[in-house]
């Protein structure tokens, strides 16, 4: 709790009135703290994260080619100590519905956004569904229920710093392939609201979103009953920072161009306007700490940041078609790519079916910057010159007559 920031707000309250601050022991989000612990324990992750943040700082995230109808398959792991924590299927579905509303800007309370900020409201184009296949291809509901004898399992760590909730031998639930599923854990976190791993901040076995069972889905909590603790944490999963950044001063921000600088978090349900760094604050953003009923929007800049994460570190989620919809089939890429890794010769893309020809391809750097592309249609085979590029991973988007797919390419010397 940052008492300097709270005292600052209390002074404003006394001077101007109308500011509601809830000072209690509840910690809304500990994503930053968990990220710091993970990176300090994993130097290789720390190096990857540093490179990714540097690339984003170049501003090339804005060149990412937007893609319509992004559907993210979700598996919800309910790890419960008692029946109160074993939330119902209906409550889980209410959370999926809330995510879909909030990420598509179709939530009814958008009308409450102040006129100053309404032009910033963004439909991210990201939607969510419960997976209908497990990692082995077997039919599934997208919900895994695991009883545990450990109370507050979401706060516990075992040998080697492993977090109990992610491991079966520690009375948790094993994560599903984190490259193909958004894993959301619902468990007892004590007084913590939730946390999530941003790209390159967690090992694959712990790359997930974790939410306190008390605040998941539509529930009866007076402050966090609308499922927006999860909206906030999924924002972190797709690389959004808290709207004030990581420090409570006007010298830091969230690295998003269209969100005004803000000294620190707001709590409760403050009245508009509020100011802290020379401009009005966007406290009704999902990445602030206000009550669920008073957060209601993402911005266009935040949308681009999330799409950048989906273009590179979380690109495998774009290929996932394992949703709980009987009309959705598993889509195959329909192409063969060789050699991969590639050295000095061209990268060859070949259709597996002469009735499913290649229509276009786009090659991106890992920061989302478009390097080269071709839109020549109805091609059975395409050669992509890659010899001049430095050694690195690249992302190749391919569109055929019947499908689209995304592939990781390794350029080596």
Low-pLDDT ranges: 1-25, 60-65, 325-332
CATH architecture type of the largest domain? 3-Layer(aba) Sandwich
State the order of secondary-structure elements, H for helix, E for strand. HHHEHEEEEEHHEEEEEEE
Number of helices: 6
Bulk shape: globular
| CATH fold annotation of the largest domain | Collagenase (Catalytic Domain)
Output mean pLDDT: 85
Q: State the name of the first-level CATH class of the largest domain.
A: Alpha Beta
Rg, alpha carbons: 22 Å
Describe the structure.
With 413 residues, the chain is α/β, with parallel strands linked by helices. It has 2 domains: 25-311, Collagenase (Catalytic Domain) (3-Layer(aba) Sandwich); 332-411, Immunoglobulin-like (Sandwich), CATH 2.60.40. It contains 6 helices and 13 strands. It has helices spanning 3-16, 31-41, 43-57, 89-103, 228-237, 300-311; strands spanning 70-80, 126-130, 143-147, 182-187, 194-196, 209-212, 335-338, 347-351, 358-365, 370-374, 381-384, 392-400, 404-411. The strands form 3 sheets. Strands 1, 2, 3, 4, 5 and 6 form a 6-stranded mixed beta sheet that branches. Strands 10-9-12-13 form a 4-stranded antiparallel beta sheet, with no helix packed on it. Strands 7-8-11 form a 3-stranded antiparallel beta sheet, with no helix packed on it. It is globular and about 60 Å long. The protein starts with a helix and ends with a strand.
């Amino acid at each position: 709790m940052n008492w300097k920031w709270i005292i600052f707000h209390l002074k404003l309250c006394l001077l101007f009135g109308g500011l509601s601050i809830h000072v209690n022991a509840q910690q809304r989000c500990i994503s930053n703290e968990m990220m710091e612990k993970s990176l300090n324990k994993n130097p290789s992750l720390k190096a990857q994260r540093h490179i990714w943040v540097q690339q984003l700082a170049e501003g090339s995230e804005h060149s990412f080619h937007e893609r319509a109808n992004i559907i993210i398959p979700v598996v919800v792991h309910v790890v419960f100590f008692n029946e109160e924590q074993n939330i119902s299927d209906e409550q889980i579905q209410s959370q999926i519905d809330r995510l879909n509303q909030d990420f598509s800007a179709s939530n009814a309370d958008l009308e409450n956004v102040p006129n100053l900020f309404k032009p910033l409201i963004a439909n991210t184009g990201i939607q969510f569904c419960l997976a209908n296949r497990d990692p082995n291809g077997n039919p599934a509901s997208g919900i895994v229920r695991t009883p545990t004898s450990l109370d507050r399992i979401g706060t516990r760590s075992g040998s080697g710093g492993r977090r109990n909730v992610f491991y079966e031998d520690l009375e948790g639930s094993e994560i599903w392939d984190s490259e193909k599923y958004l894993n959301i854990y619902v468990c007892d976190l004590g007084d913590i609201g939730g946390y999530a791993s941003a790209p390159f901040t967690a090992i694959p076995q712990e790359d997930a979103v974790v939410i306190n069972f008390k605040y998941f889905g539509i529930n009866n909590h007076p402050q966090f009953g609308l499922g927006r603790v999860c909206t906030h944490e999924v924002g972190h999963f797709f690389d959004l920072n808290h709207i004030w950044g990581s420090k409570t001063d006007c010298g830091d921000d969230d690295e998003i161009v269209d969100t005004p600088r803000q000294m620190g978090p707001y709590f409760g349900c403050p009245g508009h306007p509020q100011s802290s760094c020379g401009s009005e604050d966007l406290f009704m953003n999902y990445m602030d700490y206000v009550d669920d009923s008073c957060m209601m929007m993402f911005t266009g800049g935040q949308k681009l940041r999330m799409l950048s994460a989906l273009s590179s570190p979380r690109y495998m989620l774009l290929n996932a078609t394992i949703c709980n919809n009987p009309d959705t089939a598993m889509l195959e890429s329909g192409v063969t790519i060789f050699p991969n890794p590639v050295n000095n010769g061209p990268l060859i893309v070949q259709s597996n079916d002469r009735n499913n020809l290649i229509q276009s391809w786009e090659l991106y750097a890992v920061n989302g910057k478009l390097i080269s592309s071709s839109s020549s249609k109805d091609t059975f085979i395409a050669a992509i010159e890659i010899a001049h590029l430095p050694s690195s991973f690249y992302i190749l988007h391919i569109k055929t007559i019947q499908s689209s797919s995304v592939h990781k390419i390794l350029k080596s010397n």
